[in-house]
Specification:
Blueprint: H1 3-21, E1 27-31, E2 36-45, E3 48-52, E4 57-61, E5 65-69, H2 88-96, E6 105-107, E7 109-110, E8 122-127, E9 132-137, E10 145-150, H3 158-171, H4 175-183, E11 190-194, E12 197-202, E13 213-218, H5 220-226, H6 230-236, E14 237-239, H7 260-263, E15 279-281, E16 285-288, E17 291-294
Antiparallel strand pairs: 1-2, 1-5, 2-3, 3-4, 6-8, 7-15, 8-9, 9-10, 10-13, 11-12, 12-13, 14-15, 16-17
Helix pairs in contact: 3-4
Length: 300
């Protein structure tokens, strides 16, 4: 057998094996080096490919990518217990379908050191050239809260606020919860609570708004239960100050560390506006037996 035929056959065998075990939609990215990664390709453009893994995302530049094979979506599973907030994969997959969510990228999530969100792990994304930020809080398989904000140049845009409201409604399974979201006032501070869930509009002038306009949906009891212990925080965080420069993108799905360039996109901590102190959560984490774990310790 010729070398090229052998290579194609080998890659086909690898793809077949990975497709059988892929937790998300079985898209396959083949790199110039021959490395194969399976996940859900959220976005693909001239700049590269954004692929959703089990917990977290990675973006690879076009120069590294040889080929992308799109697979079929995983079949929906029926469950008697439907969560009022879907898992993070469904939330971010839904986000990626919006035309205004271009340039979607995961950014480091700064550990929040006060308030109801203190030490609650979360995963953070920005899109539209930094005009929107999306955060999913707690156990990523069963989130305690989700929020989206119109930030930076979008903060006064009525269209951006409408996009935020419509996006939150698109991910909420309950029609009743959607009606509560649509009934919220956009300009005055508005908070509505129903059946254990809080629906909140946060204005740019508020201390925890970071200058953005936000709509949030969360369960306060679930946030309390999702709060990480000191030992867990050591496992799923890294310092904001990076002494070693990591490459912008690698072919290893096990690399959960953020580079200094990545961290420059993260929020400052409430106690240190210089953006130097504090810690950020790793790129991906999950909860196993009630304990938070760095997701990328699990290599494929």
């Amino acid at each position: 057998m010729k070398r090229t035929q052998l290579a194609v056959t080998t890659i086909s065998i690898i793809i077949g094996a990975l497709l059988l075990n892929g937790p998300l939609k079985a898209d396959v990215v083949i790199f110039q080096s021959g490395t194969v990664v399976v996940g859900n390709v959220l976005q693909q453009d001239d700049d590269g490919v954004l692929i959703q893994m089990d917990y977290g995302t990675l973006r690879y530049p076009s120069s590294m990518v040889k080929d992308v094979h799109k697979g079929e979506a995983a079949p929906a599973t029926n469950s008697l217990a439907v969560s009022r907030i879907p898992n993070w994969a469904k939330i971010i997959s839904q986000l990626a379908t919006n035309g205004w969510a271009h340039d979607l990228k995961q950014i480091p999530a700064t550990v929040i050191d006060n308030g109801v969100l203190q030490n609650v792990p979360y995963i953070s994304f920005r899109c539209n050239a930094g005009g929107y930020e999306i955060n999913v809080y707690g156990d990523l398989d069963n989130p305690a809260g989700v929020e989206i904000g119109a930030i930076n140049y979008n903060v006064k845009s009525g269209v951006a606020k409408s996009n935020c409201v419509n996006f939150i409604c698109s991910v909420l399974p309950s029609d009743k919860d959607e009606k509560v979201v649509h009934a919220l006032n956009w300009n005055p501070k508005d908070v509505q609570k129903t059946n254990g869930m809080t629906f909140e509009i946060t204005l740019p002038s508020e201390p925890d708004a970071y200058g953005g306009w936000w709509i949030s949906v969360y369960d306060e009891n679930a946030l309390t239960n999702a709060r990480a212990t000191g030992a867990e925080l050591l496992s799923i965080t890294q310092p904001r100050i990076v002494t070693k420069v990591h490459p912008v993108a690698t072919t290893s799905v096990a690399d959960s560390a953020w580079s200094s360039d990545d961290i420059s996109s993260a929020r400052p901590t409430a106690s240190d506006s210089s953006n130097n102190g504090g810690t950020v959560y790793v790129r991906g984490y999950y909860r196993k037996n009630g304990t938070y774990v760095n997701a990328y310790t699990r290599r494929r």
